[in-house]
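Subject: Interface between my chains keeps coming out wrong

I've been trying for a while to get a sensible model of this assembly. When I model each chain on its own everything looks fine, but I need the whole thing in one frame so I can look at the contacts. Pasting all components below, labels as-is. Any help appreciated, I'm running out of ideas.
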Amino acid sequence: MTRQSMFVTLVALGAMQIACGGAAVPHQQMSTAQASVRAAEVGGAKEHPQAELRLKHANEKIAAAEALIKEGDNETATLRLREAEADAELALALALKEQAKKDAEQALKRIKLLMQETQS
Amino acid sequence: MKMHTARFAYAGCLALAALACGGKAIPPPELVAARHAYEDASAGPATEYAPASLDTAKQALGEAENAWKEDPKAKEPETLTLAYIAERRALASAAMGEAAKARKDRIKLDEEYMELQAKKASMTAEELKRVRDRLQIVSQKAASSEADLKKTEAELAKERAARAEAEKKLTAAVASLAEMASVKEEARGMVITLNGAVLFTTGKYELLPIAKTKLDDVAKALQEQGFKKIVIEGHTDSRGKASDNDLLSERRAQSVKDHLVSRGLDSSKIQAVGLGASRPIDSNDTPDGRASNRRVELIVNN
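Reply #2:
Try treating it as a single job with all components included. I did that and got this:
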């Protein structure tokens, strides 16, 4: 192998590395996704089935991203982490919705009870 | 003919080229789902209650649409991820809208609750006071009426009994005096007229024993019945000196008074006067007439 051919080979290998997920490890996306999961948990996502399901999806995506990072596929890992963030945010929104609806139902129940007491 | 075939072949090539370039490509299900999710969110409360969240969902959908339009094949993984994110953003937006609406409803319900509670509390206090006042009035009236009724009934019964008893005794007393007295109701009061011949010996003013016995009954009856005032008038016939008659009639009246007082009647309520022959009730020309004029009258005022 001549010097010229070796140079060409190195360039080609470098080009392939870039093409095959040569992106940097998505630390920032990982932190953001994990923070979103924690926010959803604090927001009560585990207390409502629909929210809990989305939280489960988020955690699965994060786990998949971690596996991809280990494999060196940082690009796909980034996509999974972005999806995980969206799932976690949806989990939080669903938890807030369920809690708000529950509070409203209780308020309605309370006022109905009072009205019954008033009439009796 | 060759020309026609060539045109057909060109058109076929254009169609294939269009398919190859994605001009007629079918969007991925993830993107379709994202579009539907966004449409649903737009039609829900998110428009009013969570416009910022809905706008974020719109931007996410826009990014997914652009990625798919630019290069459906080359960017497929990213397009799918963007569509996935867009769908979740839209669902989250819808949820945020519903949450905001529920919170607003809850605030309204809480306000209504407070208002109703305050109203109930005030109504209760007011009603309670009204009921208590009413009850108090009713109970007072009831107690008062009952007391009055009892009092009235008791008093009436007592009064009736006393009156009946007094009347009975007076009637009995007067009846026992019938042979020597008469009783008449006049404007000046009840007038008991005692025959002078039965009370006194001629020319004297000491009461005869039988007269005392009869007057005892009268005294007892008057005491029980009660009276305000008694005027005892002594009367004579026209024979003899007027001054003597006046003196005699006064003394006889006084004798009757003294006897009644000795039987317990209040002296201060009894007045004895001698009227002599000034007020005859019959003729002084006949023995019977003169006997009638010789009398003592007890005018009783109740």
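Reply #3:
Confirming on my end. The longest helix of chain A spans residues 74-119.
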